[in-house]
Design brief:
The complex is a heterodimer of chains A (179) and B (98). Chain A is built from 7 helices and no strands. In chain A, α1 runs antiparallel to α2 and α2 packs antiparallel against α3. Chain A is globular. Chain B is mostly helical and 98 residues long. In chain B, α2 runs antiparallel to α3. Chain B is elongated. The termini of chain B are far apart. Classes of the chains: A mainly alpha (179), B mainly alpha (98).
């Protein structure tokens, strides 16, 4: 990985973490959702820097595009624009306890994740890992062949899952006639 | 870059957990869960880069599909809850509390 790519990796990583922090600390659900969109975009950049161009494109289309628009739409539908701290955050004691739980979990995750890595891939080394493709080879074909040969059954089952969720969402959101 | 990506993913996941523990708005809770799913996706992509395969990327596609389905059903439930209780404040939705 060149110094150029490394610089942008750190830049987008910092943007992702800062936007996520702003996301959980904003009072207004609209502001929170917009900071989450910023996190999603930085994650898409990180995916592309990690040689997962297809996942990066899907991240922008599905997460930053579709899912977050639906969230913002529901925020507007329920008219949650004007919020105050009392209805948005739990009591101070719960928040401090939540912060400590978060710190403990962070320490645990870092120990597990970095402890299992081979020593030549540690934090100080800018190791490129193993490239999925070299040069101008097609970057989507390997993902497609994994999806459509080895995991074809799982891929088809997800279409059933999507159908079920669409029907479920319509049934849940429909006004009840009998009530 | 693998270790750095894992550190970023751990940070994002923990921020999502802290959000679930400290927020009261059901809608924001859903967004925190989406953030946690995204952190896991970043781990998948980084480790698939480490091993030089594409299986992790294929799995990310599955995770995104499930996340989209979860968001659709979850938001429908939030709308149904809002219609019933007139609020999405989790303090008021405590029918199962003993």
């Amino acid at each position: 990985m060149t110094g150029f790519e490394q610089f942008f990796f750190y830049l987008f990583g910092l943007i992702a973490l800062a936007s996520a922090l702003l996301f959980v600390t904003r009072k207004s659900p609209v502001a929170a959702a917009l900071w989450l969109v910023s996190t999603m975009f930085s994650l898409a950049a990180l995916y592309i820097l990690l040689d997962a161009q297809f996942v990066g494109a899907v991240q922008v289309l599905v997460y930053a595009g579709a899912i977050m628009v639906v969230f913002l739409f529901v925020v507007m539908l329920l008219n949650l624009g004007q919020a105050d701290a009392a209805t948005e955050f739990r009591a101070n004691g719960t928040r401090i306890a939540g912060g400590f739980v978060g710190l403990a979990l962070l320490a645990e995750l870092l120990v597990v994740a970095l402890g299992k890595l081979p020593p030549d891939l540690g934090l100080g080394v800018a190791s490129p890992g193993t490239a999925v493709v070299n040069g101008d080879e097609n970057v989507i074909a390997p993902v497609a062949s994994a999806l459509f040969t080895q995991h074809l059954v799982a891929f088809e089952v997800t279409s059933l899952l999507l159908l079920a969720s669409v029907v479920g969402a319509v049934v849940l959101a429909k006004p009840r006639r009998d009530a | 870059m693998i270790a750095q990506a894992l550190v970023i993913a751990a940070g994002l996941f923990v921020i999502g957990v802290v959000g679930v523990l400290t927020r009261r708005n059901a809608l924001v809770l859903f967004m925190c869960v989406e953030l946690m799913l995204n952190a896991v996706n970043l781990t998948f992509v980084a480790l698939s880069r480490l091993h030089g395969g594409t299986l992790g990327q294929a799995f990310v596609v599955f995770v995104m599909t499930v996340a989209a389905a979860e968001a659709a059903v979850g938001l429908a439930i939030v709308i149904a809850v809002f219609r019933h209780f007139g609020t999405v404040d989790l303090r008021n939705i405590s029918l199962l509390r003993g």
